[in-house]
TrEMBL record:
Domain SIS: 120-257
Organism: Paenibacillus stellifer
Record-linked Pfam families: HTH_6, SIS
Protein name in UniProt: RpiR family transcriptional regulator
Keywords for the protein's UniProt record, in alphabetical order: DNA-binding, Transcription, Transcription regulation
Length: 281
């Protein structure tokens, strides 16, 4: 099984081979329709450079790689669910399944550089407004960030629209704002627009991703990696949530005085209006 997430991870490519790896990651859907001359032209390298590339990644040639791509494209949602069901039904039970997600936390911690994390915290803490884009399953991550950081007095907007409606959200983004993007699996057109818009308008971006190789990594100002499982597996949100919670606490510490003040005011409001809005248990 070919895994586009880890296929190029940790490999030291030449400049030409890195161009090919980046192109394949961003245009994997086009590869089955291409010949080596097409790929060479797209990457601005020689055909011989393309021919040598396949051996670097464990394929015999382009035809062999295409076959692996076809197999990978069979990784549908049903197949991912089947993988999750198999794990739960292997006789180890729910406890073992829960503990199994700890490996995603370990992988995330192994990839995390303290300097990268501190820079991300500084960016989030100093922004006028945070604009959160979490499409699909990442919507829960954006909601969690919004809920927690708003309590600390951080200005937060969620970008919930895609397609042409994304332009409405772009109107709200200022030069001193930060766009937080949850970019999993691949770079969508919306993510490409957000990254390009940020570059054109001078605002900063934080990309939280499970990709080790992607063109998004170079376009974003700050990147944090979080593991979610192999491409053909049912993706876990355990590690992304842990990353988000750690970021939230660190931002709260940077804004400690305001965070405490907001907490006190929140408790006062709850007490004052508890007759009208009793706390739900």
């Amino acid at each position: 099984m070919l895994n586009m997430n880890t296929l190029f991870d940790g490999r030291k490519f030449s400049r030409g081979h890195q161009r090919i790896a980046d192109y394949i990651t961003k245009h994997i859907e086009d590869i089955p329709l291409m010949v080596e001359d097409d790929l060479a032209q797209a990457c601005q390298v020689s055909t011989s450079t393309v021919s040598r590339f396949w051996g670097e990644i464990g394929s015999r040639n382009l035809k062999d790689f295409k076959q692996k791509v076809r197999e990978e494209q069979l990784s549908s949602s049903a197949r991912k669910l089947h993988s999750a069901f198999d794990k739960l039904g292997e006789g180890q039970g729910a406890r073992a399944s829960v503990l199994g997600t700890a490996d995603y936390l370990r992988q995330t911690a192994d990839h995390l550089e303290e300097r990268d994390f501190e820079e991300a915290v500084e960016v989030l803490s100093s922004a006028d407004t945070l604009h959160l884009y979490g499409p699909g399953s990442a919507e829960c991550l954006a909601a969690l960030m919004d809920f927690r950081l708003t309590r600390f007095g951080v200005g937060v907007r969620r970008i919930s629209r895609g397609g042409h409606e994304l332009f409405e959200s772009l109107l709200q983004i200022g030069e001193k704002d930060v766009i937080v993007i949850f970019g999993f699996v691949s770079e969508s057109p919306e993510i490409a627009v957000l990254l390009d818009f940020a570059k054109e308008h001078g605002c900063r971006t934080l990309l939280i991703t499970d990709l080790a190789v992607s063109g998004m990594l170079e376009k974003a100002d700050h990147v944090l990696y979080t593991a979610r499982g192999q491409l053909w597996e049912f993706h876990s949100m355990v590690a992304p949530i842990a990353m988000i919670e750690t970021l939230i606490v660190a931002v709260g510490k940077r804004r400690e005085q305001q965070a405490y003040a907001n907490g006190d005011e929140l408790n006062r409001l709850r007490q004052h209006y508890r007759k009208w809005l009793p706390k739900q248990i």
